[in-house]
Amino acid sequence: MPLDDYLDAATLERLARFSLKMRRRFADLKAGDFKGVQTGDGVEFFEHKRYAPGMDIRAIDWRRYAKTDTLYVKRFERESNLRALILLDVSASCGRDTSVGDVKFPAAAKAACILAYVYLANGIPVTFATFDASVRDVIGAAPNLSVMKRIASVIDKSAYDGRSSSAGLITARPLLTPRSDVFIISDFFYHDISNLPPFLTLMRGMHIRCRIMQILAQSEITLSQADALYIDAETNAQHSVAAATIRHEYADALAEHTRTLSVAAADNDHIFTRIPAESSIVDACLRAV
Predict the structure, then answer these.
(1) pTM for the whole thing?
(2) Residues of the chain with CATH 3.40.50.410
C-alpha cells in the first residue's frame, strides 16, 4: 500500500493541527532535566530563582547579589535528545491473510505511520522497527519526514508469516535509548506474555515512556454467537467449536490476558490501551502521544 493509503489528506490535515499544539510539549521534553549547580557538556544556564532556605548555596549567583542585594541561585538544564521508537508486530496473527487481516493489518500499519509522522513533523528522530520472533527490519533514527515512504515500504514488504513473542520483542533492546518515547503496536497474543514485564521494567529504569497499544479486530474482542472453525494464523491448527462452549472461556482468557498487560504497564508507569481496529486510529494515536 502506498503511503497515501495510511496518511490520507484528511488525516494529514488533522496531524498538522495537532503538531502545532504539541510543539510546546515536545520542546519541554527535549529541554531535559533541571540540574542545580552542574556544568559540563550538554548543560546550559536556564534561569535565576530567588534563593530560599534549603537550596544549594553553591548555586548562588554572587555577581547578581552584588548588583541587586538579593540572593538568587542559578538553575541549569541538561539537554536530553528526545527520540521515538516505534515497534510494529508483523507476525502472522497481525497480517493481511487472517480472517481479520482486512481490518487489523491496516489499523496497525496506520498507527505506526501516524505516530512516526507526529514526531518527525516536530523534528524528533524516529527509529522504526518490525518484529515477530525477533526484530526484522529497522530504519534507524530518521530525522525528518522524508523517511515516511521508506516506513510504508518496509510495512508492505513484511512477510507476516512468523510467530510473535515477548522474546521476539525483547530483541529490540539494543534500539532503546534513555528518556525516549516507545510505542509497541501488536495484538500481544504471545505464548510467553509473562516474560514481558521485565522488559517494561527495564524501560522504566531508562526513563522511557512506553505506550503499549493492543490492536484487535472487534470480532476478536467479542466472538460471534455462531459455531465456527478457528484456524491458528501462526500454526494453522484447526479447531471446530460450539459458540456457547468457547465464548465464555475465551472471554475469561482474554480478560486475564488484558489484566496481565494492564498491570505490567501500570506497575512500570507505562500506559496500556486496547484499540479496536474498526475505531478511529487517528484519535487513538493522538491520545497516546
Answers:
(1) 0.77
(2) 3-25+81-288
**CATH number 3.40.50.410 is the correct assignment for the domain at 3-25+81-288:** yes
Grid coordinates standing for 182? Answer: 516507545
Residue 106's nearest CA partner among 179, 185, 182 is 185
For residue range 149-172, list pLDDT tens digits in order: 999 999 988 877 778 889 999 999
| Cα–Cα–Cα angle for 250, 256, 260, rounded to 5 degrees | 140
Nearest to 112 by CA among 130, 136, 86: 86
- The CA distance from 101 to 188, in Å, is 15
For 125-156, write each residue's pLDDT tens digit: 999 999 999 999 999 887 889 999 999 999 98
Q: Is the dihedral of CA 232, 233, 237, 241 positive or negative?
A: positive
Q: Record the cell numbers describing residue 149, joined without a space.
A: 515512504
SS (H, E, C) 105-154: HHHHHHHHHHHHHHHHHCCCCEEEEEECCCEEEEEEEECCHHHHHHHHHH
Q: How many residues appear in the chain?
A: 289
- Residue 151 phi/psi, 5-degree rounding, is -60, -45
pLDDT digits (tens, 9 = 90+) for 190-230: 989 999 999 999 999 999 999 999 999 998 888 766 556 66
